[in-house]
């Protein structure tokens, strides 16, 4: 056995040389002078025999020398850093715990969810310094370098979300937090294999990464995986992840359909969407209840009543509006009085002499009541529109080019073609959604006192846009915008998305949340004073709760599933330093007893 097998710094033994001058001083010091006292001669029984080796006798009888040499010996060995070999885990003082809070961790197994078992295991991994990262929002640090008490309190306060897995981001976040000798513990069901790259990166940094899997109770799951809207109906898709055929009933409002699903089969049902929204239920349920429901938000009054005021019946516009589901179109020719309640009024090709003051005033009142008004371009725009016309009209021009298009819900994905002729002008108020090359607004909007106003710059009989297949799409969006009726796809989201509500309080499944943006972490309805949206788990991979055990996987995931067991030296320097201190104190006590102190 060489010194390096027991000492990390053998050079520290050079401190033993300090014992040499101590011994030499004891050898060269003069012998004490003996004096004969007659008074005590009678106590001497005989003449003391002289030792054959007087200097060895001197050393052996000097307890003080022995203590000093032992102090030097202990301190020298301490400087050489003796050690014992132990498991690396026993030496870790900093731990970063990654807890999977994704939806699949709510899978029930024998009365406990995967998440509950993972949190219980996480408590056993707490060390002197502990950081905690969850998969929420792609990797959220909920505790950074906290005490054991803080770590246990943080773990007790965790709860699962209804969002898809984001384990890779959480492990990457943990890697960036971990110190040089920290240990990362990942507690998850390890669905998929996207997390493998993050684990490889962490281990490449020399960090110990321990993977603990919780995968029980996931066999035979059946759940919703998709939701598509068409008009006022919704098509729901259901997948059977089990190995046997099942029967499921899908119920939404008062309507229900039955599905027969074979192993790994997908079935769909189409049902009408109730006004105001409701919850689609899959029955019977199973061990993973999150994907057994889909929440669907819808306007309370889904129909949009549109009045078109025109003296030249615009058949392209009327046809485009007529094919939009739940849009009721009424056409009136000025001069006329407007009777009835409408959500939207469109002024198209109106003769200036026929437009009555009351026709315009009705539009202003509608905007004040929260409705919408649109003015469509024509050769000569009536001055009577005044504030309902968002541009200051100029001359008629040709050879336009489309410049900037804002990416809003009204214009996104639509290819606006250059108009053959247009009315040049500048904005009076509002903002341009589509702008021509010379700065003239082609589409402009303004939210005003709770209502909405729009300017449509195409002169209909001299525009090719009306032949575009996206023309009805634009007008569907336009009337829904003007009536403040969001379309069903805009009201219904997947969990994990973020929705803008504005600066208001939103009531969600987990309580009140303040805007302006709200992350949809739990499935259910999110309501403000003026708006309601829904969030549902619709993720095929997250619903596949029958995950394969880590020790049975092949490829990259299989190679990473090993639990690293590395041995490291544990220095014993502090124990030797303590021993040296004890010996030094013993020396002081001996000197005091002998009377030298």
TrEMBL record:
The keyword tRNA processing does not apply. Residues 305-478 form the DUF7408 domain. Keywords: Membrane, Transmembrane, Transmembrane helix. It comes from Haloarcula taiwanensis. SUPFAM superfamilies: Class I glutamine amidotransferase-like (SSF52317), vWA-like (SSF53300). InterPro entries: Aerotolerance_reg_N (IPR024163), Class_I_gatase-like (IPR029062), Double_TM_dom (IPR011933), DUF7406 (IPR055829), DUF7407 (IPR055830), DUF7408 (IPR055831), VWF_A (IPR002035), vWFA_dom_sf (IPR036465). Residues 7-82 form the Aerotolerance regulator N-terminal domain. Residues 222-295 form the DUF7407 domain. Residues 95-190 form the VWFA domain. PANTHER family: BLL2463 PROTEIN (PTHR37464). Residues 485-535 form the DUF7406 domain. The lineage of its organism: Archaea, Methanobacteriati, Methanobacteriota, Stenosarchaea group, Halobacteria. This is Aerotolerance regulator N-terminal domain-containing protein. The chain crosses the membrane at residues 6-28, 63-84.
């Amino acid at each position: 056995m060489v010194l390096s097998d027991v000492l990390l710094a053998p050079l520290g033994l050079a401190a033993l040389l300090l014992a040499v001058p101590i011994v030499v001083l004891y050898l060269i010091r003069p012998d004490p002078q003996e004096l004969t006292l007659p008074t005590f001669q009678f106590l001497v029984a005989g003449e003391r025999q002289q030792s054959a080796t007087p200097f060895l006798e001197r050393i052996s009888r000097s307890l003080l020398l022995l203590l000093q040499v032992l102090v030097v010996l202990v301190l020298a060995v301490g400087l050489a850093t003796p050690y014992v070999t132990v498991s690396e885990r026993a030496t870790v003082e900093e731990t970063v715990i990654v807890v999977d809070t994704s939806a699949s961790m709510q899978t029930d197994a024998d009365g406990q969810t995967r998440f509950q078992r993972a949190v219980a295991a996480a408590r056993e991994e707490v060390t002197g310094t502990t950081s905690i990262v969850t998969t929420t929002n792609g990797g959220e640090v909920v505790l950074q370098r906290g005490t054991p008490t803080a770590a246990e309190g943080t773990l007790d306060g965790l709860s699962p979300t209804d969002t898809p897995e984001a384990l890779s981001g959480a492990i990457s976040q943990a890697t960036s937090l971990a110190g040089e000798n920290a240990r990362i513990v990942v507690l998850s069901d390890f669905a998929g294999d996207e997390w493998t790259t993050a684990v490889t990166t962490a281990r490449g940094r020399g960090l110990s990464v321990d993977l603990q899997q919780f995968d029980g109770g996931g066999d035979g799951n059946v759940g919703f995986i998709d939701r598509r809207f068409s008009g006022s109906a919704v098509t729901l898709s259901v997948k059977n992840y089990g190995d046997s055929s099942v029967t499921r009933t899908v119920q939404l409002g008062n309507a229900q359909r039955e599905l027969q699903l074979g192993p790994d089969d997908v079935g769909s049902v189409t049902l009408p969407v109730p006004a105001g929204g409701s919850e689609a239920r899959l029955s019977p349920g199973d061990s993973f209840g999150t994907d057994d429901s889909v929440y669907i938000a819808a306007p309370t009054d889904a129909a949009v009543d549109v009045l078109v005021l025109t003296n030249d019946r615009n058949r392209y516009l009327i046809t485009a509006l007529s094919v939009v589901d739940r849009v009721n179109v009424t056409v009136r020719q000025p001069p006329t009085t407007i009777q009835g309640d409408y959500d939207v009024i469109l002024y198209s090709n109106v003769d200036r002499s026929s437009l009555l003051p009351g026709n315009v005033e009705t539009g202003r009142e509608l905007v004040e009541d929260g409705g919408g008004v649109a003015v469509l371009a024509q050769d000569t725009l009536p001055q009577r529109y005044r504030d309902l016309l968002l541009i200051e009209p100029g001359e008629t021009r040709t050879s336009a080019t489309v410049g900037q298009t804002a990416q809003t819900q009204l214009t996104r994905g639509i290819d606006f073609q250059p108009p053959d002729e247009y009315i040049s002008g500048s904005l009076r108020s509002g903002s341009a959604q589509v702008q021509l090359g010379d700065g003239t607004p082609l589409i402009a909007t303004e939210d005003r006192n709770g209502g909405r106003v729009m300017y449509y710059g195409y002169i209909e009989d001299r525009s090719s846009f009306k032949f575009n297949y996206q023309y009805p799409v634009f007008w569907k969006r336009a009337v829904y915008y003007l009536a403040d009726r969001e379309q069903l796809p805009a009201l219904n989201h997947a969990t994990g998305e973020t929705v803008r509500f504005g600066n208001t309080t939103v009531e969600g499944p987990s309580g009140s949340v303040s805007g302006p943006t709200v992350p949809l972490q739990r499935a259910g309805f999110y309501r403000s004073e003026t708006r309601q949206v829904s969030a549902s788990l619709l993720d095929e991979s997250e619903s596949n709760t029958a995950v394969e055990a880590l020790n049975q996987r092949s490829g990259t995931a299989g190679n990473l599933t090993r639990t690293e067991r590395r041995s490291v030296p544990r220095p014993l320097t502090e124990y030797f330093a303590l021993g040296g201190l004890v010996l030094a104190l013993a020396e002081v006590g001996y000197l005091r007893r002998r009377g030298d102190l």
